[in-house]
Amino acid sequence: MSSTSSAIEVHGLSKSYPNHVAIAGIDLEVKSGEIFALLGPNGAGKTTTVEILEGYRSRDGGTVSVLGVDPANTDVRAWRNRIGIVLQSTKDAADLTVEEAISHFAGYYSNPKNVDEVIAAVGLAEKRKTKGEQLSGGQRRRLDVALGILGNPELLFLDEPTTGFDPEARRAFWDLIRQLKNDGTTILMTTHYLDEAEALADRLAVMTNGKILEVSTPALLGGRSRAKARVSWSENGKVFLETTDSPTQFVNKLSARIDGEIQDLSVSRPNLEDIYLEMIGEKV
Amino acid sequence: MSQLKLPSTLKIGISRGFLEVKQFMRQRESVVFTLLFPVLLLLIFGSVFKDEIAPGVTFSQYFVAGMIASGLVNTGFQQLAITIPMERDDGTLKRLRGTPAPASSYFIGKIILVFVSMSIQVILLLIFGVLLYGITLPTDPERWLTFIWVMLLGLISSTLLGIAFSSVPKSGRGASAVVSPIVIILQFFSGVFFVFTQLPTWMQNFAAIFPLKWLTQGMRAVFLPDSFAAQEVAGSWELGKIAIFLGVWSVLGFFLALKTFRWEK
What we know:
By secondary structure, chain A is of the alpha/beta class. In chain A, about 30% of the residues lie in helices and about 30% in strands. The interface of A and B includes residues 55, 82, 110 and 151 of A.
């Protein structure tokens, strides 16, 4: 029996290719209605994991349940009707316009979203008569997202969705994802952008070398909330750096000692990216 | 939400067929080349070989029958065995796999595309043949009936075998080099460019394994006078045997297509 509270349940999942181990036994749970981000360097096994969950790849071991169904044993169209997939970079449908592609694919689902609403939601209203091959990288990606959400999925897979977006388009995309979450869609995404994971994810997992290092929330990952603050300033042309648990006190003392403005003063906590890079062993 | 009924395989297949035709028509160079190629060959061969190959039968008349048959193999087998690997490369197939559309609706779409493309080729070939080389069209309805079933069986077997063979080329770029020589050799062996009975016996026997030989023979039964049947290998058109061969290849093609079809590289 599938529990209603988790959209995805994975236990002991493993997958090897002739020359390397892609996934070395992982456990993963994605709860219904949450946005879950899978982080990790290239080659960590993120895409292989996601593609097993999407039913594209076979696995060597472990159990997998996606919306209560084992993707390996199913060729059931009804299951595909309930999921949406945004693959990594695509270049198909190049000779179809945005509108043609979206209205065609709408015909595959039992309960598709309104074509015009989807086009508007991904911000391609002005490009609806433009062919896929003439779209910019970011616009093309939004078309992929449109095709992924078209079937009103209960569960949406996003594999590096905002690669090639400009900052404005990325913000707009984030709003769209939050909207989908508000509508009750469960989302599993992989991304290279830590700010994206921080902005969107309820929970996240860091993966390297086919293993999951930690599952946490953006605020708590890698002991981030307990990490010391870094205070830096300049004095007589030299830069100073102090790590401390009580930055307020430290700055007070500093201010008492130095007359007037403290030069180049900054107080910071490690951001998600610092924590992440430390975790995967690439210290800054 | 999931209680709603999914669109049927046939419905998705037909909508894919329309989409495929639309996409095909948008590639102008390929449209012109594909649709006019048989006419071009007719112009070349019709200008070179002006003799009668039997009393009242011009080479052009013989050649038109062969060209229609080989058009089926070009449009079904060759085109699909080349374009499907390309669609595997560019992610078209991977995207489809991720939707509720079944593989068979993709196949139906391809059959529709081949049907439309083939119909246009046949019409053009017959128009040019009649106008330029005095090709005579059958008047007997029974011959048109033969034409229809040979066309349909040719269409189905050729399309399914093309889908099955599309798993052989490793990439879209290399596909043409793998597929084209096979088709060209079969055309020579099957009596498209030469009168079949003038070929060496081993060539005839080899060709008799594959559908193209039977397609050309079937088309000759449509377009050549009954007096010519005596000059066939068996001394008759062998319509029953043609139906059996094409039928067996269609069934084989169906299972091979299902068995070997790959969505991804």
